[in-house]
Design brief:
This protein has about 140 residues and is an alpha+beta fold. It has a domain at about 1-95. It has 4 helices and 12 strands; from the N terminus they run βββαβββαββαββαββ. The chain has helices at about 25-30, 55-60, 65-70, 90-100; strands spanning about 1-5, 10-15, 20-25, 35, 40-45, 45-50, 60, 65, 75-80, 85-90, 110, 115-120. The protein has a 4-stranded mixed beta sheet, covered by helices on one side. A 3-stranded antiparallel beta sheet has the order 3-8-7. The longest helix has 10 residues, at about 90-100.
Length: about 140
């Protein structure tokens, strides 16, 4: 069993531990939301075709090379030393675009009295956010 982490989810899948993450088509969809269709890898209305002549690098029997597919999209795919945990992250372009927008994702944190505050409640205001952790 292998754990696959993405920006939005965590899934335990039946895969061999190693340097390449081969997933069944069903596990790929469950872990990432992407599925294999005749036109390529698809999620919602977006499809990424497999490069012509390189189908064997991405597909074998009922398995998909998730590592190669993720890298094809320009995204980061990294594994733990033992290959039992994989992180399929966003690519540098997506991170750069988010940084250039200067818009932080919305989140909610409590103040000292326990009252929750959402970041979006303070839009168009200057705020100072101070965090601390014991580790």
């Amino acid at each position: 069993m292998v754990t696959v982490l993405t920006e939005a989810s965590e899934a335990r899948v039946s895969a061999e531990q190693g340097r390449t993450l081969w997933l069944t088509r069903g596990d790929l969809e469950r872990a990432t939301g992407w599925q294999m269709k005749p036109e390529g890898f698809c999620k919602d209305d977006v499809c990424v075709p497999t490069p012509r002549g390189q189908e064997r690098d991405y597909l074998r029997d009922d398995e998909v090379n998730a590592t190669a597919f993720w890298q094809l999209m320009g995204k980061t795919a990294v594994a733990s030393r033992d290959g039992d945990v994989w992180f399929l992250g966003e690519g540098a372009q997506q991170r750069n675009e988010a940084l250039l927008s200067l818009q932080a994702p919305d989140f909610t944190l409590p103040d000292f009295s326990g009252k929750p505050h959402r970041l979006s409640d303070y839009r168009r205001q200057r705020i100072l956010l101070i965090t601390w952790a014991s580790w």
